[in-house]
Every structure is written in C-alpha cells, then in structure tokens.
Design brief:
Blueprint (H helix, E strand, L loop, with lengths): L1 H33 L9 H9 L14 H29 L2 H7 L1 H7 L9 H39 L18 E5 L6 E6 L3 E6 L3 H8 L3 E6 L4 H11 L7 E3 L5 E3 L2 E3 L12 E4 L25 H15 L4 H7 L5 H27 L1
Parallel strand pairs: 1-4, 1-8, 4-5
Antiparallel strand pairs: 2-3, 6-7
Helix pairs in contact: 5-6, 7-9, 9-11
Length: 362
C-alpha cells in the first residue's frame, strides 16, 4: 500500500510542476504580445556567449593580374601603327606617282620572296625563312595600297581628264592646210551678267558677228569653254545663226588641275603648229599657242575682235610653218597693235626701196 501511495504522490508532483511551467510560458507570451514596446531581455549568459565568439575571418582576395595595362598598351600600339601607316601612305600619294612607288617596292617584293640557297647552313635557312615571313605582310600591304590607288586614280581620271584623247574628228584630207582657231565663249565672244532687277542676261561682244563670218572663210572655228554643255549649246545656237562655228567643246573636254579647268589643246586631234587659241595664258596648258585678247566687260567702245582680224587673216593667207614661233616673236604683247605697227614699218621700208630703185634708174 505504501508503494502505491508513493507512486501517486510522485505523479501528482510531476503533473503540478509541468502545469506551472506551462502557465509561466503562456504568461510570458501574453505579456510580450500585449506590450510590444518592451522587448525580451536576454540573459547574461547569452550576452557573454555572444561576446566570447570571435568574428568570422574575412575572405582572402586573390591578387588581380594587370590585364588592363596590357590591353591599353596593345590598343595604343595598334593606333600608333595604323596612324603611321596612313600617314606614310598619304606621303607616298602626295610625293610619288604610282609608277615610282611600284618601282621602289621591288626590293620589298624580293625580300618577301627570299629563297635560301641549298648550300646555306640550317641557321641561315631558318633566318632567311623568318626574314621572308616578316617581309610578307608589308609586301602584301603595299600591293593592296597600289591596287587601291590605281582604282581610285582610274575613277578620278573620269573627272579630271578630258572625255577623249581625240576631242575633234579627223580633219578632211583637203583641209590639212587649214588652221584651227579656238575661241573661248564667256568674256571673249560674249558676256553673261546677273542683276537683281533682270536676272541673268547674255550680251554679245561688239563685232562678234563680223568676226565669225569673216574668219570662217579661213579657219576651222572651235568654241572651247569651261562651262557646262547645258549652257554652251543653247548660247552658241543663238549666237551663231550662220553656223560659222564648226565644233563646240564644254567643261567635259577640259582638264581639271589644281582646282581649275584648263583647255588642253593637245587633245584636239590637230597639228599643234596650226592651232591659234584666243584664251588667257593662265587658262590653257599650251600658252605658246595663245593669242592674248582683252576680256570683255560690257565696254561700249570695245573693238578687240575687229582689231584681231588683220593679223588672223594674214596668218591664214601666208600659212607659216609653225604658228608658235610667230606668236613667240610678239612676246605676249598686244598682237593687234604690234601687228599694225609692224605692217606700217614694212610698208615704209617698201616705199623706201621703191624710191631707191627709182633714183638708181635715174
């Protein structure tokens, strides 16, 4: 009986302690939930335990390799190489012609195609192969430069050179003795002016009709202008109603050089000893064939064309062997005035000779 009583007492004590602990826990939860401003107070043992634990060690950072410096060095090296190559190519394009560059590139091509002899040692053969391999890249680059330059120059020739090497058709066999008179259009035969009140207007030079009609009997007259054909053709049709002008050449027949259009008389398919060009000296590539004429600027008393008729008729009638020597004798003077003075001097000498002949007979 006693043992039974003891077991019942121990069971009741255990039950009472469990219920007390459950009540304490429930009261702690309720108090914490009912007053949220009051936090839970940690125990001193937990604080000491937190302070006693050491902080975790910082992770070790591996040293970085300086790849950025290497890349920047390579980048700037490539930029410097491309800039130097471009500058040298520009210098060659400005200083040397394509044929001169091709001639200078023979040594580089020979170095790229180096072949060691059979008697050479292994070291010499290996060194020769390395040298040939090193020269192959510059040789290929130079070949590419020459190909590109030839292509560009071929396209530029379409705009800088005359449209043909023979701008005029072959002269008739019965007219081989005829001289060719090349005339400019603007400021030689006419003048084009623009004003706000009336716009564009074209004025004929005084005496132009008589000049063309008379010299068409002796010369093959060609208009050679640096204007566009859309301007030259309609103006010549209204100017030359009697069809004294045989051929018209416009800007496409000129040579573009140093920012200016030049008349190239060598492309006319005519004998240069029989060409007279009434142009300014600075607008022709053959100034030895030029007959200087005063530019027309709407002067009412202009007689430059009519004054040239005696000289041009004299040349056509006498047919000198080389007109360039005749023009050189005038030394770029006013040919009309100089020819008039020479004609008067010649007539004076003839009169003197006649008088001397009469005196001798007497």
């Amino acid at each position: 009986m006693s043992s039974i009583v003891l077991r019942s007492r121990t069971i009741s004590n255990n039950f009472s302690s469990k219920s007390f602990s459950q009540r304490g826990l429930c009261s702690g939860v309720v108090s914490s939930s009912s007053d949220p401003s009051k936090g839970t107070i940690p125990s001193s043992q937990s604080i000491l335990s937190d302070q006693s634990t050491p902080p975790p060690p910082a992770p070790k950072v591996a040293p970085q390799v300086s790849g950025g410096k290497i890349w920047s060095f390579v980048k700037y090296g490539l930029i410097a190489g491309v800039t130097g190559t471009t500058g040298y190519a520009g210098y060659l394009s400005y200083k040397c012609s394509c044929e001169e560059v091709d001639h200078k590139a023979k040594a580089l091509r020979a170095a790229a195609s180096y072949a060691p002899s059979e008697d050479a040692s292994a070291i010499d053969k290996y060194g020769g192969l390395l040298y040939s391999a090193a020269m192959t890249v510059p040789a290929k680059a130079l070949e590419s430069y020459l190909d590109l330059r030839r292509l560009v120059e071929e396209h530029l020739l379409e705009y800088t050179e005359p449209t043909s090497d023979k701008l005029l058709p072959d002269l008739h066999p019965l007219e081989q003795h005829v001289f060719t008179l090349v005339l400019d259009l603007n400021e030689t035969l006419l003048y084009t002016d623009w004003k706000r009140e009336r716009g564009w207007c074209t004025f004929k030079r005084p005496g132009v009709d008589a000049f063309l009609e008379h010299l068409a009997k002796f010369y093959e007259i060609v208009v050679y202008s640096d204007q566009m054909n859309m301007y030259v053709d309609p103006v010549c049709e209204r100017l030359d109603t009697n069809h004294c002008i045989r051929y018209r050449l416009s800007r496409g027949a000129t040579k573009y050089q140093d920012g200016k259009h030049y008349r190239d008389l060598s492309k006319l398919n005519r004998d240069p000893t029989k060409i007279l060009s009434a142009h300014a000296f600075d607008s022709s590539l053959q100034p030895e064939n030029c007959v200087p004429i005063k530019p027309y600027k709407l002067e009412t008393d202009d007689t430059a064309l009519l004054d040239l008729i005696p000289f041009l008729e004299y040349v056509a009638r006498n047919s000198p062997a080389d007109i360039r020597q005749v023009l050189q004798s005038y030394e770029r003077k006013d040919i009309a005035k100089e020819f008039l003075e020479r004609s008067k001097e010649y007539q004076r000498r003839v009169q003197e000779q006649k008088q001397q002949g009469r005196l001798w007979r007497l």
